[in-house]
Every structure is written in structure tokens, then in C-alpha cells.
Specification:
The protein is an alpha/beta fold. Strands 3-2-1-4-5-6 form a six-stranded parallel beta sheet, sandwiched between helices. α6 packs parallel to α7.
């Protein structure tokens, strides 16, 4: 499967290659799937969405169906702050609107087309990474996961933070470029390039699934 390079110039690629970045990270089963923050608020361009997030959600529907059919461990994450804002933090100082994402606010709910099924983990978080301060890493370990497919929003924020932490915990991240989205395409493309060079395998949904048949 080809590494995703997006619109990086040849000079950029040469510099990274010369310094030894971008080595092949081969997928190793068993696989898991992490869907990061595909909630109503990030699907709504008037709230936190826009860009290519909508199409990424649509592409993830079949991905989730495949993961379930293959018996992969599936985890979802959502941003949830306390009703009284007692857990406000530096993230919410930088992005105050995040404090509107409460447990019972529809904006914090996972989009209906990707609603979690029984046995799937739902991680509530107040920072970008789905791993930081949560039970995600031990849950994946308990399920024997070696390689973690990642979909979700946004590519340059919570997705990237979760990918870096996945790698740091010893999982092999596989970012599906057409199943992650961002409100702006520039940061999306730059983050895919960065993750492919340093932290993850970056491919497309169909390329990856075809290779696992």
C-alpha cells in the first residue's frame, strides 16, 4: 500500500527521505478500530465542522461495518465536559466552545450512522487524545490489538494527538486518509503528511481493506 504524501513538494519529500523518515510501517494483526469524535457537533459546519468532515463520516460507515464483520475491537471517543464546568482545562481555555459539549447535549453524541454497538468502548475525554487519562490503551491491549485503524475528526487535532499516543503506547497506527476529516483542508493535508513520515501508516479505506481480504 502506498504511503499518503498529499501535496507535499518533492523537496520536502527528499529532505525527509534523506533524514530517514517515512519508513514502511507494516500492519500486523490483530486489528482494532478507533473512531475519534465523530459526533454531531463536529458534523455540523455551524458548530465545529466543515471542510471534509462530512464525506469522512460517510466513508467511515462501511469501514465500521467491515470492522464489525471481521470481529475487530472497536472504540469510539467523544468530548464531554462536566455540566458545571468543574473539569475545564487548558484545552477549553484555547477553545472555549468545547465546554458546550456536555453528556446530554446532542452535539456531544456520536452521529447516528456510527452509533456504537454493544461491546464497543466509548471513551469520554476533555483533551485531544483519546488515550490521555482514559482506559483506551489497556482496553485495546486486553483485546490483543497490535495495529489500530484510525478514523475521525479532526485530522490536525484529536486524530493526530490520538495517533501519536497510539504509537507511544506501542500500537501500530493506520490512518485512513479518506475516513478522517478537518474543518480546513490545509491542516488536514499537512497532518496526513506528518503522520505518514513519523508516526503511522497512512492509506485509504479501500486500499487497506483490499489488502486484508
Amino acid at each position: 500500500m502506498a504511503h499518503h504524501t498529499d501535496k507535499a513538494g518533492s523537496r520536502d519529500l527528499e529532505a525527509y527521505a534523506r533524514q530517514g523518515f517515512g519508513a514502511v510501517l507494516a500492519p500486523r494483526p490483530p486489528f482494532g478500530l478507533l473512531i475519534v469524535d465523530f459526533v454531531n457537533g463536529f458534523a455540523d459546519p455551524a458548530r465545529f465542522g466543515g471542510g471534509n468532515i462530512g464525506p469522512a463520516i460517510a466513508r467511515t460507515v462501511a469501514l465500521l461495518e467491515n470492522a464489525r464483520a471481521r470481529g475487530w475491537a472497536v472504540a469510539h471517543s467523544r468530548i464531554v465536559f462536566a455540566d458545571d464546568d468543574s473539569d475545564q482545562n487548558i484545552f477549553s481555555l484555547k477553545v472555549p466552545g468545547m465546554l458546550t459539549l456536555k453528556e446530554h447535549d446532542p452535539a456531544s453524541a456520536i452521529v447516528d450512522v456510527l452509533a456504537p454497538a454493544a461491546g464497543e468502548l466509548v471513551v469520554r475525554k476533555t483533551v485531544p487524545s483519546a488515550f490521555f487519562g482514559t482506559s483506551l490503551a489497556p482496553w485495546l491491549t486486553q483485546h490483543g490489538v497490535q495495529s489500530l485503524l484510525v478514523a475521525g475528526a479532526v485530522t490536525s487535532g484529536c486524530v493526530r494527538a490520538s495517533v501519536v499516543d497510539a504509537m507511544s503506547h506501542g500500537f501500530r497506527p493506520i490512518v485512513l486518509a479518506d475516513c478522517v476529516g478537518d474543518r480546513a483542508i490545509g491542516p488536514h493535508d499537512a497532518s496526513l503528511f506528518d503522520m505518514a513520515q513519523k508516526y503511522a501508516m497512512v492509506t485509504t479505506r479501500d486500499e487497506f481493506l483490499a489488502g486484508q481480504c
